[in-house]
TrEMBL record:
Entry superkingdom: Bacteria
The organism of origin for this protein: Streptomyces lutosisoli
Keywords: DNA recombination, DNA-binding, Transposable element, Transposition
Stated name of the protein: Mutator family transposase
Keyword Protease set for record: no
Positions of the UniProt region annotated as Disordered: 77-97
Lineage: Bacteria, Bacillati, Actinomycetota, Actinomycetes, Kitasatosporales
Family, as annotated: Belongs to the transposase mutator family.
Pfam families: Transposase_mut
PANTHER family to which the protein is assigned, alphabetical: MUTATOR FAMILY TRANSPOSASE, TRANSPOSASE FOR INSERTION SEQUENCE ELEMENT IS1081
């Protein structure tokens, strides 16, 4: 829909910044919007897409903003006689098509005779407005491939976008990802949790690869995604030492409690990097892992009896209950019993805490909720061409939740009670920082 009436555009562009005039400009915008809607109804104009109602409105706003920029650059209003001897003046317009969230919009970009005007709203050589890139990244974060994004934009916005353009938009996040992975971290974390999600990555051939995720709870109770690393599936102490040392080099000098799965070499590596950390194995993972040694017909009963163990009021009570469990199942499933005995030291650690701490550290469910969002974004893609592509999507999943602070995924519930209890156990390690 072409907008021929110039006076509303000039009014928006030339409105000054006093309160009364801003109010009049706002009323003008509302009146103009009502006129556009009425015209769209009368002429059967579409809402979005080329020639749509919103395209016309975006055209009006962009051209008004460009005129305001040029006025500020020249130092006088359009039509003002003061410009006659200024040494620079308006010099018509040039046509430009830009991609916006509502589709392609053809605009008239004002020029000056000296060629010194550099627009900020629609920069030179830019063919799309920032919000359009944001729409592409949001779709990418939801797991759509470049081909699916291309089809979606064509269907919804009636605009043809090349796959190359989409790739360039998503490639911009690579630098942001690197900065995020290398940002400074807090000195002390009350809890750090480490877990993994398995995704398909092509490395010669498509293979399942684990992506390890570390989330910390800082002393303000904020859940902070500290880092992500793509593994090979056979990680040992050397790999874990490298990744945990990375966190320490970025500022993490002390961890009170580290909660993790029983990944090979991980508990020992945690205590090598942070000697004072208490290592707690995730109880949910322990139960799941031990069920692999039992017949499925016994899973429900075994899980129920193990619950009595890990909900015991004390470590001694848990030991007594597990002894009863071993009497019942030890002969039939000795490997299951051995799994718990090998991990007993790191299992019972959380039982010395009161309930407000236990519910935070006995499971890595905090990461599981993030992993669920990861799975939703990665499932439909099938596989990723390389590690970097996988990490970009996972980072965008994190950022999509809270763009201004992409590493913070939420606040721990009832944190005041928890931090006061932790201060009673860890003393100066908390109160000093």
């Amino acid at each position: 829909m072409a907008i021929k009436d110039e006076s509303p555009r000039e009014s928006v562009a030339n409105s000054v910044r006093t309160g009364a005039e801003l109010a009049r400009a706002a009323q003008l915008d509302r009146d103009l919007a009502e006129q556009l809607i009425e015209r769209a109804r009368r002429e059967g104009v579409n809402l979005v897409g080329e020639g749509g109602l919103l395209s016309g409105l975006v055209k009006l706003v962009l051209e008004g903003a460009l005129e305001a920029e040029l006025t500020e650059h020249l130092g006088y209003e359009k039509g003002d006689k003061a410009g006659a001897g200024s040494g620079n003046s308006r010099n018509g317009t040039s046509k430009k098509r830009v991609l916006t969230d509502v589709g392609p919009v053809d605009i008239e970009v004002p020029r000056d005779r000296a060629g010194s005007f550099v627009p900020q709203v629609v920069p030179k050589h830019s063919r799309r407005i920032q919000g359009f890139d944001a729409a592409i990244l949001s779709l990418y974060a939801k797991g759509l491939t470049t081909g699916e994004i291309q089809a979606h934009l064509a269907e919804i916005y009636d605009v043809e976008v090349s796959r190359d353009l989409i790739s360039r938009a998503t490639d911009k996040v690579a630098g942001e990802l690197d900065a995020w992975r290398n940002r400074p971290l807090d000195r002390t974390y009350a809890v750090i949790m480490i877990d993994a999600i398995v995704i398909k990555i092509r490395d010669g051939a498509v293979a399942n690869r684990p992506v390890y995720v570390a989330i910390g709870i800082n002393l303000q109770g904020e859940r902070d995604v500290l880092g992500m690393w793509v593994g090979s599936g056979g990680e040992g102490a050397k790999a874990w030492m490298t990744w945990l040392a990375e966190l320490k080099n970025r500022g993490v000098q002390d961890v009170l409690i580290a909660c993790c799965d029983g990944l090979k070499g991980l508990p020992d590596s945690i205590q090598n990097i942070w000697p004072l950390a208490d290592v707690q194995l995730c109880v949910v993972h322990m139960v799941r892992h031990s069920l692999k040694y039992a017949s499925t017909k016994h899973w429900s009963l075994i899980a129920k009896e193990l619950r009595y163990v890990y909900t015991a009021p004390t470590a001694d009570a848990a030991e007594a209950r597990f002894a009863d469990f071993e009497d019942t199942w030890g002969t039939k499933y000795p490997a299951l019993i051995a799994t718990w005995r090998r991990s007993w030291e790191h299992f019972v650690m959380f039982l010395r805490f009161p309930p407000e701490i236990r519910k935070i550290v006995y499971t890595t469910n905090m990461i599981e909720s993030l992993n669920a969002r990861f799975r939703q974004a990665t499932r439909r893609r099938g596989h990723f061409p390389d590690e970097q592509s996988a990490l970009k999507v996972l980072y965008l999943v994190i950022r999509d939740k809270q763009p201004n602070r992409p590493h913070i995924t939420g606040q721990t519930r009832d944190w005041k009670a928890a931090i006061n209890t932790l201060a009673g156990y860890y003393g100066d390690r908390i109160t000093d920082y």
